Amino acid sequence: MNPDPDAPILFFDSGLGGLTVLGQTRALLPTARIVYAADYAGLPYGQKSEAELAARVPALLGRLVERYQPRLAVIACNTASTIALAHVRAALDLPIVGTVPAIKPAAELTKSGVIGVLGTEATVRQPYVDDLSARFADGKRVLRHGSPGLVTGAEAKLRGGTIDPAVISRAIAGLRDQPGGEAMDVIVLACTHFPLLTDELQDAAGPGVQLIDGAEGIARRIAYLTQDHPWPAAATPGLAVFTRSADRPPPPLATLAPYGIDRIEVI
Questions:
Q1: In terms of CB atoms within 10 Å, which of 72, 77, 121, 238 comes out highest?
Q2: How confident is the model at residue 46, as a pLDDT?
Q3: H-assigned helices in the chain
Q4: How high is the pLDDT of residue 105?
Q5: 77 is catalytic
Q6: pTM score, two decimals?
Q7: CA-to-CA distance for 78 and 214, rounded, in angstroms?
Q8: In this predicted structure, what is the pLDDT of residue 208?
Q9: Where are the alpha helices (DSSP H) in 110-176?
């Protein structure tokens, strides 16, 4: 049975990184109703334990699904996806789209055979990344580095702040200083926050390195899964929902307006 045309797509992330996925999805589905949920009470996910996230993410998503009745939910967060996607799919009875590091396209792009994977500390240590590397990058060298400072920097940049250049240079050096790193010619941005820092990361990596992320592929997957769904005739402004944090207030609405969001709720 097809959903109501006004049923939203729910995007979920620890913070604002999932806006990179929302932006690509809006380009394909311009009239879709949007609810964007950020777990500011739990940010940053990359420094939490697997057990904590495996419990937290399905419980919180369950509350959001009950409240907003989406047609589909998108875990627009690599860390939450690599740890909790199976738990969420087992708990919720609606289509769930996860976010995986773009290792397959990186393996197809590399000419040197050396790929960097830049993510959170939690993402880069996951067996899921081992599996993707074995399946799609066999024979390639896959370097990994976890950079929690990039998440903080991306949040600050989106709010109009500045990011310490040393955080950027340390992130790139964390890959390049590994054995074989001097030959790296593709870097996978394996955190949805990181494309917000594409310009800074590209400058540090240099012109011989290509940066890729999975946002466009995720948007295509969402469009495919909803291709037979009815949609509103015209776009309506979206809603952003933030879990309550004592030390991290929601961003100014002007930060979210370019993504078609005009209301904020705190839960």
A1: 77
A2: 83
A3: 19-28, 50-68, 78-91, 103-109, 121-124, 127-136, 148-158, 165-176, 198-205, 215-225, 253-256
A4: 95
A5: yes
A6: 0.93
A7: 10
A8: 96
A9: 121-124, 127-136, 148-158, 165-176
- Contact between residue 27 and residue 89 where contact means Cβ atoms under 8 Å apart: no
pLDDT given at position 215: 95
The pLDDT of residue 31 is 95
Amino acid (one-letter) located at 48: K
Residue from 61, 75, 77, 187 carrying the catalytic annotation: 77
Q: What does the pLDDT read at residue 86?
A: 92
Integer Cα distance of 250 and 8 in angstroms: 21
Query: Residue 161, class by beta-carbon neighbours within 10 Å (0-12 exposed, 13-18 middle, 19+ buried)?
Result: exposed
Report pLDDT for 19.
96
Among candidate residues 60, 151, 191, 256, the one labeled active-site is 191
Gap between the Cα atoms of 134 and 136, Å rounded: 6
Task: Please tell me the distance from the alpha carbon of residue 208 to that of residue 247, in angstroms, as a whole number.
Answer: 40
Helices (H) and strands (E) in the chain, counts: 11, 10
Cβ neighbors of 144 (< 8 A, separation 6 or more) are 116, 117, 118, 119, 124, 125, 129, 175
Q: Identity (one letter) of the amino acid at 62?
A: G
The count of other CB atoms within 10 Å of the CB of residue 235 is 15
Q: From CA 200, how far away is CA 171, in angstroms rounded?
A: 11
Give the residue ranges of the chain where pLDDT is below 70: 1
Say what the pLDDT of residue 130 is.
Answer: 93
* Residue 254 falls in the annotated catalytic set: no
